[in-house]
Write a structure and sequence with these properties.
8 helices
Length: 201
């Protein structure tokens, strides 16, 4: 299996970096091919230009340009070539970091009337890991009101118009208040979840 990891955190250390390293190590240990796109290290341009936006003319979705910028084409090709799409990022102001939102704005800027889009995404799986300062999910409850809202507007929203299956969106909360032991447990949980992916693939 080929896995694409899109990673969005500006710091070189911290829990998000630990999650990234754990995911990469565990996937490779299982024999999977892994590609990491570290948006901050790439200095990815998150700004969607007017000519690349989708807008409506005479009742139809259109783009002024028939081709995409080279950096966007590169990212789109990575998506097409991989079976599993993994996104690792913190929740800031109840949403994506701006650089990841810009990545989505630009890389996913396809026409809603293009019937080939769903076919290109068909059969792919997606998995999301997010850290947050908010409390973790209460025991015996699937989500808090806030995490469910964030899922709807992030992981659920990205793939709601194509045939990619979102396996899960995992949240690790109260990050600033966790002990070293707690952080080790988070990374162990990440490892266990990656090891259990075979049943979804």
């Amino acid at each position: 299996m080929k896995a694409l990891i899109v990673y969005a955190h500006p710091r070189e250390e911290g829990l998000n970096k630990g999650i990234l390293e754990t995911v990469v190590k565990t996937l490779k240990k299982q024999g999977h091919e892994v590609t990491v796109r570290d948006l901050y290290r790439m200095n990815f341009d998150p700004v969607l230009s007017g000519e690349d936006t989708i807008h409506i003319e005479e009742g139809h979705f259109v783009r002024e340009k028939e081709t995409y910028p080279k950096d966007v084409e590169i990212e789109q090709q990575y998506i097409l070539e991989n079976d599993l799409l993994i996104y690792i990022f913190p929740i800031w102001w109840n949403s994506f970091p701006a650089i990841l939102k810009g990545y989505i704005d630009r890389v996913f800027a396809y026409s809603f009337e293009d019937a080939t889009v769903s076919k290109k995404f068909s059969g792919k799986k997606a998995l999301f890991f997010s850290t947050t300062g908010q409390p973790q999910t209460p025991e015996n409850e699937p989500d808090t009101v806030l995490t469910q809202a964030i899922k709807t507007t992030t992981s659920g929203w990205i793939f709601n118009a194509n045939d990619t299956e979102v396996i899960d969106h995992i949240f690790y909360g109260r990050i600033p208040y966790l002990t070293d032991s707690d952080l080790e447990n988070v990374l162990r949980d990440v490892e266990n979840r990656i090891e259990a992916l075979d049943k979804f693939l």
